[in-house]
Each structure stands twice: as C-alpha cells, then as structure tokens.
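Sequence only, no structure available. Ideas?
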Amino acid sequence: MSNQQSLVDYLVQHEPSFRKARLPALYSDFTTLRTLNPDGYQANISAWRAALAHLTRSGLAPAPKGSTPNLLVLNSDESLLRALESKKYGRPLALGTVIREALAAKDLIPLHDFLTSQTSIYYQPWLPSPWTIAGGVAGWALKQLGVADWLRGNGLPKGQYVVVANVQEAGKQFAATTASAQTDSRFDRTWSKAHFLHTYNEQVRLDQGTDGKLLSETDLDVLLVFLSRDKDLILYDGSTFKIKTPSDQPQHQSITPEDTTVASIKELISSLTHQTHLLAGRISELDKTARAAVQSKNRIAALAALKQKKLAEQSLEGRYASLTQLEAVAAQIQQASDSVAMMKIMETSSRVLESLNEQVGGVDRVENLTSKLREQMAEVDEVNTILAEAGTTAAGGVVDEEEIDEELEEMLAEQEKEKQAKEEKEEEERERDREREREQEREAEELRRRLEAIGGVPVVEPGTGTAGSRREREMERLMKGMSIDED
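Reply:
I predicted one. Tokens follow.
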C-alpha cells in the first residue's frame, strides 16, 4: 500500500466485500439491524471481520507505539479508528459491535487470555458464554442490571486481540515448511525461539503481496502456543521448542535440559556463521581501502586500513575456531542421539524376536513338525499312486508301453515312405516337363534351318503370281510336313 493510499481505499481494492456501493452501510451504525434485518447485520459483521483479519495479516493495521506491526494480533484502540476513518463517511460507527461479535464467536481472543489459557481454543464448554446469554432469555435481567448494555455497547473495546484465522493460516504454513522434519533427528527438530524467528521468518509469510512484513516476537509467541496447545505439533516451554514425531516415546513429551542445550548450540552456530560472513566482507572492504590508499600514496590511511584488516582477520580466525569446535560438539551430539535411537530399536527388535521365538516353540518343536509334515506328504503320494493304479485297471487293464512305441514307429515309417514316394513322383513330373521343353526347342531349331534354306519371303508384284506361288506352295508343304511330324 502506498503512503498516500488510505486503509479504506486498500480494502476497496483487495477485499471483495468492501465494494464502494457498500461503504455507506458498512460505516453506518448498523447495530439496529440485529433485529430489523438479521441477514444484513450478519453480512456487515462478516465483511468487517474479514477486513480486520486482512489488514492485520498484511501488517497494515496500526501497531502499539514503539513496536513492530503484528501479523497475528490486532491492536484495538483509537489509532485503529483513525486509520479506518474515511473522508466521505467518517469513522466506522459499529466497529465496537464488530469487535464484540468477533469476541463472542472466538474469531478474536484477548492476547493475554490466549497465551495463558491451559485449554484449547477449540474447546466448547457446556455453559454458554456471556455474549450468548446477553441475546437470550436472560438478556432482560442483564439489561436491568446494565450488563447487557455494556456487552452490546458501541464503544470500541481496547486491547490486543489474537486473530484466530491468521493464526490458523500461519500454522498451516509452519506445518508445510517443517514437514520434512518428521524424519529428522532430535538435533534437527529442536530450536530456540530466537533462532527459529531468524531462520524461518521469511518462509512463514501470510500475505505474499506485502513486502517486508515478517512475524514479530509477539506473533511467534502466539504461533508457538497455538502449535503446542491447540495443534499438538510441537513441545514448547517458552524459549525452546521441539517438533514432535509419531515415534516419540512418552518420556520425550517435554522439553528436557538436553533439548535446551541443543537449541543453544544451534543458535550459537548460526550466530557465529553470520559473524564470519560479516567479518569476511569487512576484511575484503579493508583490503580494497588499503590498496586505494597505496595508489593515492596515503601512507597513514593505508596503515590504518591494514591494521584494521589484521584485527578483523584475527577475529575471523577466532570465530572459525569456535565454530569448528561447536560443529564438532554438534556432530558428537547427533551421533550420540543416533546411537540412543539405534539401541532403542535393537532393544525393541530383541523383544519382538524373543516373542516370536516363543510362539515358534524352539528347535525341537520345529523338527517334530517338519518330520510329521514329511510323513504326511509321503502318505499323500502313496495314496495318489494307489488311486492312479486303480483308475488304470478300471479303464481296461495295464497298457503295454512297448507295443504303443512300436505302433508309433510303424506309423512314422509309413508316413516317411509316403513322403518319399510323393517326392519321387514330383521329380519324375519335373523331368518329363524338362524333356518336353528340350524337344520343342529342337523342333524350333529345325524349322529355323529349313526357313533359311528356302530363303526370305519374296515380294510379289501386282499381276504376277508365279514365283510367289511356287514359294508359297513350298512353304505350305513344309508346314504340312511339320504338322504331320508333330502328330
């Protein structure tokens, strides 16, 4: 949101229920609609609840003086009314009613009550709340005492209130961000509050369209209490928390001194790593400064930069030494934690194997069972053999296998003879075809020689048929002779 844009304009652009046509109704005192038009009353209440949650989630709601904006906690006081004031419609006259209705519906919960309560926010007591009583049959008596008027007054309740919808959204993002931690070691699942705020803050963003709005320390307190008490996802003691896993043993259902030590080591490692990065950058800058001073022949500045660089290098060396030592300690802790987990698995496996062996009954029982099994299998085979022999006898006696083999051999030999006779017949047919072709070729050759001996066919002039007639008669004679030969 730009500096010139008011919260009203922002809501008109980003909140669907805050259309310009609805602003007169939303900024009016619509308390009387509770009985005259209940649907319109609830629509206005729902629109303001969504708007307040949106402004808080975006970090645009006014924060207490001297503190950073909260994304999960709404600060309700005069500054909220001023921030929501419209030049055209003035201040929202029913905002106090909206806050009270949200408190009655547990959409808003006082911050102190949220952090100190031992019961879940999802717990539903069998006794009705005073907000419900004020709207029921007992409302008349409370009204006579002036209590109902206070519950339904238009004045703005002042204080800090946890926005439950925003907390639930942050819880979902936390669960998605740390989903892989379910399979991590105890070391990786344990955090200090300050370390987690520094490491994961940018990953738990409620409003992706808002730049630079991160969870505050108050927001983190609210989120961790919600995850521990209401969602049972973590263990939390106010400064250290540990992500729970389904395999955690009952003795691990609280933060132990070992967990606190692990969280402190992780936080210190993170801090030293950050310091080494800063010192490395500082050394690089001082080196550039010294070189620039040498080029400009400024001896004093060059010496000062080199001295500062030397001190920074010494500090960096010390940080690296401490970091190496802490990382070695962390590695030993992880190894020891893995060894403990391995011993527990081995212990459990040993009990399981012992129970299974007891159910088996020992080696002697297994041998007896296998022996009986072999006997029963042999008996089954014997029975099957007897039944097979009985079936063969009932079918007409024992079949002579040698006789069957001889008959099969005769059938095969007969089939082979038939095959050879067929092949010989086909070969004789092919030989006769070849002889016939050779005979035709010889006759054609003889005809060609006789035609050559006679000479070419003369051209007969018109009116003269003598020579042509003789040759034609000769040709005809030859052709008749050939036809007689062929017959």
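Confidence is low (pLDDT under 50) at residues 133-143, 145-151, 457-465.
Hope that gets you unstuck.
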